[in-house]
TrEMBL record:
It holds the Pfam family DHquinase_I. Residues 241-317 form the Shikimate dehydrogenase substrate binding N-terminal domain. PANTHER family: BIFUNCTIONAL 3-DEHYDROQUINATE DEHYDRATASE_SHIKIMATE DEHYDROGENASE, CHLOROPLASTIC, SHIKIMATE DEHYDROGENASE. One of its GO terms (biological process) is chorismate biosynthetic process. InterPro entries: Aldolase_TIM, Aminoacid_DH-like_N_sf, DHquinase_I, NAD(P)-bd_dom_sf, Shikimate_DH-bd_N, Shikimate_DH_fam, Shikm_DH/Glu-tRNA_Rdtase. One of its GO terms (molecular function) is 3-dehydroquinate dehydratase activity. This is Shikimate dehydrogenase (NADP(+)).
Length: 503
């Protein structure tokens, strides 16, 4: 929102240059505001068509004019040819009852309703849409431009955003134009995915602009990273990362860059989710074309692939064309991919097994340091690749328990436990050493779980420590693996890296 006509005109030029189709002019934010002069000047000099809004205080705006005066200004804007005029649903019946020439106007009217506290139940939202449609049928001639229903709520969870998106999708599919948006961080997907629901429009901000509602994304991201103009109802697939919090995730940066580089009709967004089961249930009801999630989702899946089942954890959920979901664990896959690459490039590379498209870990000895979640992931993945695995841990009983669990998860595998000191002394050694503990993590960067004089016995040393960032290959491999699971296509790693560095 801007305070003066000059600021609005300058912002409209910037918005046009940045690729916007429309600008919303919040007349109630202008200081001072002279309707007789400002409305015609704006309509004559704006660089883009506009939505004229004069929001009253009782609907979250700043206008304190008497209602007859306020509504007269909106009619004045329509008579001068504004592309859209926003009229609050609460006064719409009165407004249109007194409107004499609806059949001849070129202006599209928006029937808006805002809830600044919460997202009402779906039944209440559906009833509101029905009331809007009855009002339109009662007040508008058949030949008049079709009004747009605008429903704005406040999201507490991404489920609210999906609810609004689903309602918008169903309403627009029936031929009734609609704008459905949820405010706040949790509501952001409703703005970024508006095109997948056939929404009439969505709202974004300029770099130096002031948002007119919480959660409006930057215009450059809407058009660039999320490719709003390329989204198509019934065709564009949706993937995303789930978390609480989730705004810090670089998943949208990486995956959308890869999707765009391959021309994949899809978009990847961040979902701020506090209740994952409720989110999944809402996704099914809404009809939002959710194709996959980066989420801890083993229990939520219909099936689990062998690695995820063996590890007992998953971080990726993928839906097939029949709506059935499968859980995958790309942590283990990414770690093994990094280790396998190291083996190929080491003195162990070039084996007959590798030439036969088998894992280069087949019959190799992998020593895993650590018996936590990361250790379990690496141990199971290595055992499934055909390696002999030794698990060592400071608390030997935990290594013994994990070894037994891996043997159960991977029948006929060779997995044993050993005390950590036997690895540190060199008594136990192998082809690959995989550290999955936090020893050596920042700020304790000089520490190591195994002495330097022992490391020479290993052809490959893998370290799962991620601060400092020595395991970039692991992070790349995980994202690439998820992308392949989502799309069935190989991602361009350099495109992913470039997008992440650029962000």
């Amino acid at each position: 929102m801007y305070d003066t006509v000059e600021e609005v005109l300058a912002a409209a030029k910037e918005a046009k240059w940045a690729g916007a189709d429309l600008v919303e002019v919040r007349l109630d934010a202008l200081k001072p505001f002279n309707p007789a002069d400002d409305v015609p000047r704006l309509l004559a000099e704006l660089a883009l068509p506009c939505v004229m809004t004069l929001r009253p205080t009782w609907e979250g705006g700043f206008c304190e004019l008497p209602e007859p005066r306020r509504l007269a200004i909106l009619k004045y804007a329509a008579s001068l040819g504004a592309a859209y005029v926003d009229v609050e649903f609460k006064v719409a019946a009165y407004f249109f009852k007194e409107y004499d020439d609806l059949a001849s106007t070129r202006t599209r009217f928006i029937l808006s309703s805002h809830n600044f506290e919460t997202t009402p139940p779906l039944g209440a939202l559906e009833e509101h849409v029905r009331r809007c449609r009855r009002l339109i049928a009662d007040c508008f001639p058949v030949k008049a431009p079709r009004p747009v229903i605008k429903l704005v709520v406040t999201a507490r969870d991404a489920s609210d955003a999906l609810c609004v998106l689903g309602l918008t999708r169903r309403t627009t599919a029936e031929g009734q134009p609609m704008i459905g948006l949820a405010m706040g961080e949790a509501g952001l997907p409703s703005r970024l995915l508006a095109g997948t629901a056939g929404g009439e429009l969505t709202f974004a901000t300029l770099p130096r602009g002031r948002a007119s509602a919480p959660g409006q994304p930057p215009l450059a991201e809407v058009l660039g990273r999320y490719r709003l103009r390329d989204q198509r109802p019934g065709a564009t697939r949706v993937w995303g990362v789930v978390g609480d919090p989730v705004a810090h995730s670089k998943g949208p940066v990486i995956h959308n860059a890869a999707l765009q580089s391959l021309g994949v009709d899809g978009v990847y967004v961040a979902f701020h989710v506090k209740d994952f089961p409720s989110f999944l249930a809402t996704a099914r009801r809404s009809g939002v074309p959710l194709a996959g999630l980066s989420a801890a989702a083993l229990e939520a899946a219909d099936h689990a692939d062998p690695l995820a089942a063996g590890i007992g954890a998953a971080n990726t959920l993928v839906w097939d064309g029949r709506g059935r979901s499968t859980a995958f664990n790309t942590d283990g896959r990414a770690a093994i991919a990094a280790i396998e690459q190291g083996v190929r490039e080491s003195r162990l590379g070039g084996s007959a097994e590798a030439e036969q498209d088998r894992s280069p870990l087949l019959h190799r000895h992998v020593v895993v340091v650590g018996a936590g979640g990361a250790g379990r992931a690496v141990a199971v993945a290595a055992a499934q690749a055909g390696a002999r695995v030794t698990i060592c841990n400071r608390t030997e009983s935990k290594a013994t328990e994990l070894a037994a669990a891996v043997r159960r998860a991977v029948p006929d595998s060779s997995v044993e436990a050993a005390p950590l000191h036997s690895v540190q002394s060199g008594e136990v050694k192998g082809d690959v050493l995989a550290n999955t503990t936090q020893i050596g993590m920042h700020p304790d960067v000089e520490s190591s779980p195994v002495p330097a004089d022992v490391l020479g016995a290993y052809a490959v040393v893998f370290d799962a420590v991620y601060v400092p960032l020595h395991t970039r290959l692991l992070r790349d491999a995980e994202a690439v693996e998820q992308f392949w699971l989502f799309t069935g296509q190989e991602a361009d790693v350099e495109v992913m890296r470039g997008a992440l560095e650029g962000a």
